[in-house]
Amino acid sequence: MNLAPIENGAPVLELWFQGESNAEHFLVENRSRIGFDRYLPQEGLLVYHVDDANPAVSAVEGDAESIEMLADRVLTYRGHLAVTSDATTFHYAYTRELLRNGAVVRTKTWQEVIPRDLQ
Question: Of 2, 41, 62, 77, which is most buried, counting CB atoms within 10 Å of its CB?
Answer without folding.
Answer: 62
